[in-house]
Amino acid sequence: PYDLLVVGGGPAGAAAAIYAARKGIRTGLVAERFGGQVMDTVGIENFISVPYTEGPKLAASLEQHVKEYGVDIITEQRATGIQRREQVELQLQSGASLTSRSVILATGARWRELGVPGEQEYRTRGVAYCPHCDGPFFKGKHVAVIGGGNSGIEAAIDLAGIVTKVTVLEFGDALRADEVLQRKARSMPNISIITNAQTTEITGDGKKVTGIRYIDRHLSRKASQTLEVAGVFVQIGLVPNTEWLQESDIARNRQGEIEIDANGATSMAGVFAAGDVTTVPYKQIIISMGAGATAALSAFDHLIRESVE
Ligand code: FAD
C-alpha cells in the first residue's frame, strides 16, 4: 500500500506528488493523461517567474520534475471509485484496485458541452472548445462563440485577431465577463454580440459546420434564427471531473466541485483534494500547484498523527 496516492497528473497532482515524495513517504500517482489541461494550452504568460511558455513544454517539465523523485507513476488509468475502509481504496477502470493510507484528488475539470444536435457530429469538424488550439483553422472565416462569460469573451478577442468575424451568443440578457474584457470586445470592429440567444442546433453539410440555429429569447414568438458560420467555439464553463465520485461519501457542491477546507481536506478522513476539481475560486495553473502543495503537506500531517494513534 501507498502512504499517499495522488489521482490526477495536472499541475495540482504533480505538485502534490513532488511535495509528498520530498517527505520520504511512499507516493503513487494515477493519471489518465499526464499534464491535464495544460496539454491543451498554447501560450502561458501568467506562470509567475516564467514570462512565456507553452502547454506541452510545461507539461513535460512537470513530468520530468515528478520523475526526479521515487514516485510510482501510473498513467493511462482512470479512477472509477473510492472508499474508506481501514485504508483508502481506489478502483481503476482496468478492474485493479489500489490501497493507500491517504489520497489526494486532483482530477481537474473539462469544458462544458452545449448538448444540442450537431455538436457531437461536427466535433473537430467546426465545433471547437479551445480557441488557442483551433483558432488558426478558421482564418478568414466567420465563427460563433457560445457564451458571454470570461472564457467566451476572451475567446472572442483572441479569435478576432485571426478570423474575419466573430459573433458571440449569450443566453442571458447581459454578458457576464469582466468589464475590462467586455470593453475590449466592444472596441473590436469584427466582434458582434447577441444576447438572449439560446443556441438550439449546430448545422452542417454532412462534412463540416455551416451554421447555427438559435432562438431569440427576447421575441415573444421565439422564432428560430440562423447564422452562417464555419466554426462554433463552445465556451460555457468548466465541469469538474467528479462523476466517478458519485457513489462515494465525498461532499461536493451543486456544481459537482469537491468541497475542501483551508487545508485541502475533504469530508472523507485521509482524503484531500486540490486544483480545478475543488471549490477553489480561481482555476489557474499557479493556484492549482499551490493547492497541490497544501494538500500534500496536510496529508503528511494527517499521516504522522495517524501513525501515533
Ligand atoms: P487538470 O489540469 O485538469 O488535470 C487533471 C488530471 O487528472 C489529468 O492528468 C487528467 O488526466 C486526470 N484525470 C481526470 N479524471 C481522472 C480519473 N477519473 N482518473 C484518473 N485521472 C483522471 N491556466 C493558467 O494559469 N494560465 C493559462 O494561460 C491557462 N490557459 C488555459 C487554456 C486552456 C485551453 C485550458 C483548457 C486551461 C487553461 N488554464 C490556464 C487553466 C489550467 O490549465 C488549469 O487551471 C490547470 O491545468 C488545473 O490543474 P489541475 O491539476 O487541477 O487539473
From TrEMBL:
It comes from the Bacteria. Keywords: Coiled coil, Disulfide bond, FAD, Flavoprotein, NAD, Oxidoreductase, Redox-active center. The keyword Disulfide bond applies. Signal peptide: none annotated. Residues 2-285 form the FAD/NAD(P)-binding domain. Its cofactor is FAD. Serves to protect the cell against DNA damage by alkyl hydroperoxides. It can use either NADH or NADPH as electron donor for direct reduction of redox dyes or of alkyl hydroperoxides when combined with the AhpC protein. Homodimer. Belongs to the class-II pyridine nucleotide-disulfide oxidoreductase family. This is Alkyl hydroperoxide reductase subunit F. It comes from Gilvimarinus japonicus. The chain holds residues 210 to 518 of 531 of the full protein.
